Each structure stands twice: as structure tokens, then as C-alpha cells.
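Recall the central idea of this unit: under ordinary conditions, the amino acid sequence of a chain determines the structure it adopts. In this exercise we apply that idea directly, starting from the sequence alone.
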Amino acid sequence: MIGVRGLCVGLLTLLLAGCGGGNDFGDLDAYMREVRARPAGNIEPTPKFQSYEAFTYRAASLRSPFQPPVKIDLANRQKGSREVKPDPNRTRQFLEGFNIEQFEMVGTLSNASGTYALLRGAGGVHRLKVGDYLGRNEGHIVAITDSQVEVIEIVPDGEGGWLERPRTIPLKEHS
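Accordingly, the structure predicted from this sequence is:
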């Protein structure tokens, strides 16, 4: 048994001795000699980068290209009134900075102080009552029911007058 063990140890020693022979760093030594022979002052300058030019998107207030264009019948078109116009002295509310199309009704709340509509849009769910404003066209909430919110917008007629345009925001079920 000792003979076989000794034979295995001897073979293993021979195999390991064959692996470590020779100094094979000739290519590394040649590269280091080349680097040391270079002049000391030749450092490449850092590359020049173009500064970032900011882009401001200015078409946010235009009609979405994914909505069909509004067809206007010029013969039967309503004429605006000079009496109907937005109140320039009214304090603007937060939700007037967003398009009314992005809002969807998700429910109602009722308590002793009245009925409120829950509208999702503008980054959250908002509680609104009759008399509140939303949308970019002076949208004034005039009625809240269990199934919809009724809004009157004041829009320009294109000829210097203003039109009152009714809109509804229906209840979105399964939201």
C-alpha cells in the first residue's frame, strides 16, 4: 500500500515540476521597455465635449395628434357673444393648468356640506364641487350627478367673441 502511495506522490511531483519551468514574461518585459523608452511629456489632451443644448417642447398646448380634428360647419357655426367672456381678475385654480380631456370621473362623495366629484388626472385623484374650475378653457363645474360631471367652458369663437361650450365627464366604471 505504501508503494502505491509513494508512486502516486512521485508522479504528482513530476507533473507539478513540469508546470513551473521557464520564464514566459518576454512579451511583458518588451512592452515595459517600450513604455519606459517613451518621452515623459507626451500625454494626450482630454477630448473636447460638446455642451448639451436644452430643448423646450412648445407644442403641449396644441391638439393631440391622436385625436380626430374638430370639423367646423361654417354655415351653421355659432356666433360668439361679447357679454360672455372669461373673468381676467379671477384667481386661477390648480387644475386649470391641464387639458380637460385627461380627466376621468371615478366616483362621487356626499356629506353634509354637499356632493363632490372624484376626478382622476393631473397626477392624482382630485375632489371637486360645483363652482370649481378645471381645464384650460375656463371650465366651470355646473352640476355633479352619480354618473357624470357637467362643465361649461368659455372658448373663443375666432372672431373676437366667446362661446359657452357644454362638456360632460362621464363616470368611468371599473377603474
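Strands lie at 104-111, 114-121, 124-128, 133-134, 139-144, 148-156, 162-170.
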